[in-house]
Design brief:
Layout (H helix, E strand, L loop, with lengths): L5 E5 L3 H13 L3 E5 L2 H10 L4 E5 L7 H11 L5 E5 L4 H9 L4 E4 L4 H21 L3 E4 L2 E4 L4 E4 L2 E4 L2 H12 L5 E2 H9 L4 H17 L7 E5 L3 E5 L4
Parallel strand pairs: 1-2, 1-3, 3-4, 4-5
Antiparallel strand pairs: 6-7, 7-8, 8-9, 10-12, 11-12
Length: about 230
């Protein structure tokens, strides 16, 4: 990687921390490993990190408490929780605190790398394109002002519709997984939000139907892909 992403690991187990550090350095990331929440907060305040891998069960202050303090400093800080516990209540608490993902130990190396890349991609895209406009075939999508314009017709769309379309635009021509949309926009991947997502996809497909070269593909049970001619 030419532009190294920086990752902070907060993990009280030396062997696990060392393993994660080796894996991530092999992938080209710049990594710092600390053993508890206080050291993690100190490291985060003193330096810039693109992602935090945060163990839930830490000595003293736990990972959830640290996450609250990190989010108070930077609401958009990307966090992936790591835990040996499998309680659903823990997972819900993690996402409620604004976590981007939640991995249960032992985790598969390839899955870990994929999840990290997905979170980094989402956050880099949001930072770059948050106020952007997108030419989607014959449509002009203004994310900041929540408008979709074709010729002289301007359609005002909802914030949630705009969030979904924005994420599809950032990843135009690529599959965006359902779980990534749900976790990034709703903060939780469950049945009810999944049904809401399907409704928004149907609405967006209807809004874009006047241009036959704009296609919103549904890969059943997996995700969605927005395709349109690039200008």
């Amino acid at each position: 990687m030419t532009d190294k992403r920086r990752i902070l690991i907060v993990e009280d187990s030396l062997p696990e921390g060392a393993m994660l550090l080796d894996i991530l350095e092999d992938e080209g990331y710049e990594v710092n490993h600390v053993l508890d929440a206080e050291l993690g907060l100190k490291a985060y305040r003193e330096d810039a990190y693109d992602l935090i891998l945060l163990d839930v069960m830490l000595p003293g202050k736990d990972g959830f408490q640290m996450a609250k303090q990190i989010k108070a400093l930077n609401q958009d800080a990307p966090i992936i929780f790591l835990t040996a516990r499998t309680l659903k209540s823990d997972e819900i608490q993690g996402f409620t605190l604004g976590a981007d993902d939640y991995l249960t130990k032992p985790y598969d190396r390839e899955l870990l790398i994929w999840r990290i890349k997905a979170v980094l991609k989402r956050h880099s895209g949001v930072e770059i394109d948050l106020s952007g406009t997108y030419q989607i075939g014959s449509y002009l999508f203004d994310y900041k002002n929540l408008t979709l314009t074709r010729m002289e017709e301007v359609r005002r769309i909802t914030k949630r519709e705009a969030d979904v379309l924005h994420m599809l635009c950032i990843n135009a021509g690529e599959l965006v997984k359902r779980e990534d949309l749900l976790l990034s926009i709703w903060g939780i991947n469950d049945y009810f939000n999944g049904r809401s997502l399907d409704v928004f996809i149907t609405k967006l497909r209807k809004y874009l139907k006047e241009d036959p070269e704009v296609v919103l593909i549904n890969i059943h049970g997996v995700g969605f892909e927005l395709r349109y001619p690039k200008q």
